[in-house]
Write a structure and sequence with these properties.
Beta-Lactamase
């Protein structure tokens, strides 16, 4: 078995850069060592197929992409979380996760319970069997002003002053004696006056002996001499400013692992399983994707409702954006039995906007069209220009939208038929806000039984090769 270097808790990412051809330019030691063991080297194409595929897709689309990837390391398989984005003519990779994938984990495994702890806490901590600290989340030191490196290896009580509960007990002591999970242990972060609530689950070595705790700390607002002031919400959203970051940190990783594992079970890569079990796994993966999409919608919602939200607009080819959006949804269209009629390769429509956000809007519109189109139908994507606006039209053959609902569908959390599966009621609201932030708009034209036509409009960029009209021309 090949040993994997321990991950420095203060530097959770391994960063690398690739050139436009996918060759590795440089990489931090951990990622470089993994690539070397796979037969790669600096100056050669990346030897990790899954990571390379994410990098190639990010470079081709010109946007940042995040994916869960499984990489082989000798006889081991490692779960990685890969984020790739365009950077100086090539691609920048950020690789985190680095968890060896076991053949099987029981339902009560501490690593799984740790996912739930991370969702319930502000930061994480871990100890060995002697209750010495072995891991602290980087944000813990930043938030409370202590040096993580100095704390690692120290007793848990060096960081926390434990407080008795209402019954005069210390829940952590009962948990140690019973080697059990605990919650509700109040403590003060020494030297700060900040009160936290600790929760943890035990872990065991291969012989079944107690090997420490995996825990989380939740800051108790309003307690302690140094209690933080209330976090100001984003105007109009009701969400604290840190909501998006906390939501992503707590949910994105666990949901990605749920989806990846459910997909692996459904694909029956480890051997055949009963058909209904494979179906259950597919349902779990589908539900996970729905929740992950909701997380992304909520993060976007917080961003666009901030007073200082702004986008960097430049000249983009709306025809190219439409072709790319259709390409991203080609597999889903095939599964739904719906044909996408996209603009031809020679079509060009230059407008002012932000490529990534325009792509996001069109992926949403085309995705909705596929969802509501019957099998055998078609979704048409057409280009027009009118009144100084470049327009891309997404038309479907679905059941259409009643006139009374055409304004409501752009409202926050609005859904015409709540009984229909999928969707959060945020997609069109976010899409219109993004279109207007780019100086354009998003409108709909529909009637019951006649399908729907959504029109994304962005400011047209005049062709610099076209001569200006003569003076006095109409």
């Amino acid at each position: 078995m090949i040993a994997i270097p321990s991950l420095d808790p203060v530097v959770p990412l391994a960063v690398a850069r690739l050139d436009a051809s996918g060759r590795l330019i440089d990489a931090e030691p951990r990622l470089r060592a993994l690539n070397d063991r796979a037969g790669g080297e600096i100056g050669a194409p990346l030897a990790l197929p899954g990571v390379a595929a994410v990098a190639q897709l990010a470079y081709r689309l010109g946007i940042a992409i995040s994916r869960s990837v499984v990489a082989a390391d000798g006889e081991e398989e490692i779960d990685l979380w890969v984020r790739a984005g365009p950077d100086r003519g090539g691609v920048r990779l950020e690789v985190s996760g680095w968890r060896v994938r076991p053949a099987w984990r029981p339902a009560g495994d501490p690593a799984r319970e740790g996912d739930f702890l991370s969702a319930a806490g502000d930061w994480l901590w871990e100890t060995d069997g002697a209750l010495r600290l072995t891991f602290l989340s980087p944000e813990a030191g930043q938030r409370h002003g202590f040096d993580i490196r100095e704390m690692l290896g120290q007793p848990l009580t060096r960081l926390f002053a434990l407080a008795q509960d209402d019954a005069g007990q210390l829940p952590i002591l009962s948990a140690v004696s019973a080697q059990a999970r605990f919650d509700g242990q109040r403590a003060e972060v020494r030297g700060t006056g900040r009160m936290v609530r600790l929760a943890a689950t035990p872990r065991h070595d291969p012989l079944g002996r107690f090997a420490g705790f995996i825990g989380a700390a939740r800051v108790l607002d309003g307690e302690g001499v140094d209690s933080p002031r209330p976090v100001s919400p984003v105007a109009g959203s009701g969400f604290p400013r840190a909501f998006g970051k906390r939501l992503e940190r707590a949910l994105r990783g666990p949901l990605a692992r749920i989806i990846a594992n459910a997909d692996a079970i459904g694909a029956q890569g480890e051997g055949p399983i009963r058909g209904d079990y494979a179906g259950y796994a597919d349902d779990i993966a589908s539900a996970g994707r729905h929740l992950l999409a909701l997380v992304e919608d909520l993060v976007d919602l917080q961003a666009i409702e901030r007073d200082d939200f702004a986008m960097t607009r430049s000249t983009i080819d709306l025809a190219d954006v439409a072709r790319r959006a259709a390409g991203l949804l080609a597999v889903r269209a095939g599964e739904a039995g719906v044909r996408i009629d996209r603009p031809g390769p020679d079509a060009v429509l230059r407008v002012r906007g932000e490529f990534r956000r325009a792509l996001q809007v069109l992926v949403n519109l085309i995705g909705n069209a596929l969802r509501y189109s019957p099998r055998g139908a078609a979704v048409w994507i057409r280009l027009e220009s009118e009144g100084g606006m470049g327009c891309v039209i997404v038309a479907d053959q679905g059941k259409g939208i009643a006139l009374d609902d055409q304004a409501r569908i752009f409202e926050k959390f609005a859904r015409v038929d709540p009984a229909e599966p999928g969707g959060s009621g945020l997609g069109l609201y976010i899409a219109r806000r993004l279109a207007r932030a780019m100086g354009g708009d998003l409108i709909v034209d529909s009637a019951p039984g006649m399908g729907a036509r959504f029109v994304l409009m962005l400011p047209l960029v005049e062709d610099p090769e076209r001569p200006p009209p003569p003076a006095g021309a109409p």
